[in-house]
Amino acid sequence: MLEPQISDAAARAQISHAAQVTVQSGSSFFWGMRILPRARREAMYGIYAFCREVDDIADGPETPAKRTQLLDEWRREIDRLFAGTPLTLTGRALLGPTRMFGLERGDFLAVIDGVAMDAREEMRAPSMAVLKQYCARVAGAVGLLSIRAFGDSSRRARDLALSLGEALQITNILRDLAEDAERGRLYLPRELLEKHGIAATDPKGVLGHPALPAVCAEMAKMARAKFAEAEEAVRDCDRRALRPAFIMMKIYRRILEKLIRRGWQRLDEPIAVGKPTKIWIALRHGLL
Fold first, then answer.
1. Is pLDDT larger for residue 52 or for residue 2?
2. How far is Cα 16 from Cα 264, in angstroms, rounded to an integer?
3. What is the pLDDT of residues 87-145, one digit of tens each?
4. Mean pLDDT for the chain?
5. Cβ atoms of residues 288 and 240 within 8 Å
6. For the chain, domain boundaries
């Protein structure tokens, strides 16, 4: 099959689009990407733009049925990507990195499947098994794509991607409890709620329950354990190649510890790591 020829101007537009999506998101992931060599950095821009654009579907104003249609179109775009004929700017930005770094179709599709769980409005006090599946899809699969772009897809690097992905996602869940409740979402697992005497699954009702801090404390303990697993795995990996993952781990561990110090009574009090600290972390761990 003849593959379409891409002009230099078109290639620049695709890369610029992916980079712009990444920068405008304000994500902490940007700080890890900045230290990468150009080709790997551009691959990460493409991966992040894909994740951002797919995730935005779940948070959009459309009906669940329409969101499902939009996600199905992204599945078709992934098929086109692996056939060498993507249509979207982001899909085209991923064409070179997919070939160069061996990005896997299944990981892209797993991200879409995870977002579909939000799009279908399934995430309200899920079982622990469903929560772990969700984390593996929306975060672990992103990690599996990322380690290929970073340059180490060994077995232990895969262990790192999955453990760190779950740690990051649990941290996000704890950070965004109030925001998610406004969207009708509650990611705290049913088993922990029931363990602490919370029978309700209404997000706002759960957030007002006096036993909520005990549930959140257990979730924070789970995140700490996953960070520890990731720290252990990284010792057996190409540490230099995986510096971006190490930077993200350090930033998110700070977020988690800040959440724990703040406690679970003032959920509307924002928690973040400031830009100077992110720069310091990126410099310290990016030069190792």
1. 52
2. 40
3. 999 999 999 999 999 999 999 999 999 999 999 877 899 999 999 999 999 999 999 99
4. 88
5. yes
6. 9-103, 123-288
DSSP state string for 168-204: HHHHHHHHTHHHHHHTT-B-S-HHHHHHTT-----HH
Distance from C-alpha of 169 to C-alpha of 134, rounded to nearest angstrom: 9
Cβ(178)–Cβ(54) below 8 Å: no
Q: What is the mean pLDDT of residues 227-235?
A: 95
- The verdict on domain 123-288 having CATH code 1.10.600.10 is yes
Instruction: Tell me how far apart the alpha carbons of residues 273 and 282 are, in angstroms, rounded to a whole number.
Output: 12
Taking the C-alpha atoms of residue 176 and residue 252, their distance in angstroms, rounded to an integer, is 13
Give me the residue label for tokens 């925001």: 179
Write out the DSSP string of 97-164.
HHHHHT--HHHHHHHHHHHHHHHTT--BS--HHHHHHHHIIIIIHHHHHHHHHHT--SHHHHHHHHHH
What value does the mean pLDDT take over residues 254-261? Answer: 95
Q: Domain 9-103, what fold?
A: Farnesyl Diphosphate Synthase (1.10.600)
Instruction: For residue 38, give both structure tokens.
Output: 């150009």
- Tell if the pTM clears 0.85, that is, is over it: yes
- Tokens for 216, please give them: 């959140």
